[in-house]
Amino acid sequence: MEIQKIAVIGAGNMGHQIAMCAALSGFSVKCTDSNPDILEKAISFAENYLKERVAKGKLSEEAAKQVQTNIAFTLSLEESVTDADLVIEAIIEKLDIKRKLFAELDNLCPTHTILATNSSYIVSSKIADATNRPDRVCNMHFFNPALVMKCVEVVKGSHVSEETAESVMNVATKMSKTPVLLHKEIYGFLVNRLLQATRQEALKLLDMGVASFEDIDTAAKNGLGYPMGPFSLLDLTGIDLAYHVGMEKYSESGDPADRPSPTVVEKYTKGEWGKKAGKGFYDYE
Ligand code: 3HC
Using CA positions, which residue lies closest to atom 1 of ligand 1? Predict the structure, then answer.
C-alpha cells in the first residue's frame, strides 16, 4: 500500500518534529494534540523552522510554502485521522493511555490505516489487541531530535504483517531516514538498550559522587566521541520520559534495579525535566 496521508498524534517533544519530517518529505500530514498550548508551540515551531531553513539556504521559499501546505494542525483527533493511511502515535509513555487511544483510533480510522507507535520501550503487541487490526499495529521509533537523527526502528512483532512492516520501512526511507528492521520484539529495541547501558552507568557514577555531571558529559564527548554526553542527552529527551520509562519497566519486572535512579526521581519531582522545562541538569533559561 502506498502511504500518502499521515496523522501524528501528540505534538510534544517528538511528535512535532516527526510531523515536520513527514511534511518535508511530501506527505500530507495532520498533527494533533489535545493540549492547546502544546499545539500552539508546535505551530510556531513549524513556522520558525521553515523560516530558519530558508534563511540558512537549506530550503527554497517555494519549497517552504509547499511544506506549509503539506502540514495542518488540529485539536480534533477525529479530524486528524479520518483519511489517514498511517497514524504515528507519539503521546505519553503510559500503556493504559496508549491502549485507550489505539482502541479509539481503531474506531475512527479507515480499515486500511496502519497504526504505529513511536514508543521508546513499549512493544506494539501490548497495544495491538486493543484494536481489531493487530496485523496493522507496529512500532515506528524515531530519535530525538527527529528532524536530524537518521535512525528509525521498525519492529515486526509476530502479529505484524509483512505488508505493514514493508510500508512503514518505505515511509521512513521516503522521510530520508535509514530505518532498521527488528524481526522480533524486545524491550528497548536496539538503540535504547545500548543507550540505557551508558545512561545507567553515568547516573551511578554521579550518585556515587565520582565526578560532576558536567565532567561525565565531557568524558563521554572527548573520550568516546559521543556528539553529546549522557546528561545533556537526558535533558534533550526529557527527564520525565526517563522517569516514566523506569517506572513502567519496574512495575513490569519488579526488579529494584529497574527503578529510576535517585537523581532522576529528584529532578522529576522538582519539575526539572530538561530542556523543555528550562532546567534539567543544565540551565536553559
Ligand atoms: N531540532 C531540530 N534540528 C536541530 C536540533 C533540534 N533540537 N538541534 C540541532 N538541530 C540541527 C541544526 O539546525 C543543524 O542543522 P543544519 O546543519 O542542517 O543547519 C544540525 O542539527 C546541527 O546542529 P548544531 O550544529 O547546532 O549542533 P550539533 O552539531 O551539536 O548537533 C545534535 C546537535 C544533532 C543534537 C547532536 O548533538 C546529536 O546528535 N546529539 C545526540 C542525539 C542523540 O543521541 N539522540 C538520540 C536520543 S535517544 C532517543 O531519542 C530515544 C528516545 O526513545 C528517548
Answer: 145
User: What is the CB < 6 Å shell around ligand 1?
Assistant: 56, 58, 120, 143-145, 147-149, 192, 195, 227-228, 233, 237, 241
Spot the catalytic one: 80, 141, 185, 232: 141
Cell numbers placing 94: 503510559
DSSP secondary structure string, 150-163? -EEEEE--TTS-HH
The answer to whether 120 and 190 are in contact (CB under 8 A) is no
Task: Report the candidate in 49, 112, 50 with the shortest Cα–Cα distance to residue 83.
Answer: 112
Query: Rounded to the nearest 5 degrees, what angle is found at the Cα of 106, between the Cα atoms of 104 and 112?
Result: 150
Ligand 1 atom 14, closest CA: 148
Q: Is 192 a catalytic residue?
A: yes
pTM: 0.92
Best CA proximity match to 102, nearest among 152, 153, 137:
137
> What are 1-33's pLDDT values in tens digits?
789 999 999 999 999 999 999 999 999 999 999
- Return the residue whose CA atom lies nearest to atom 47 of ligand 1: 144
Residue 252: alpha-carbon gap to chain centroid? 21
Q: How far is the CA of 147 from the centre of ligand 1 (A)?
A: 8
Say whether 44 is catalytic: no
Name the amino acid, one letter, at 104. Answer: E
Residues with Cβ within 8 Å of residue 273, at least 6 apart in sequence:
238, 239, 240, 267, 280
Q: What is the predicted ipTM? A: 0.97
Is 119 catalytic? The answer is no
CA 50 to chain centre: 21
3-state DSSP of 102-138:
HHHHHHHCCCCCEEEECCCCCCCHHHHCCCCCHHHEE
DSSP 262: H
Instruction: Decide if 118 is catalytic.
Output: no
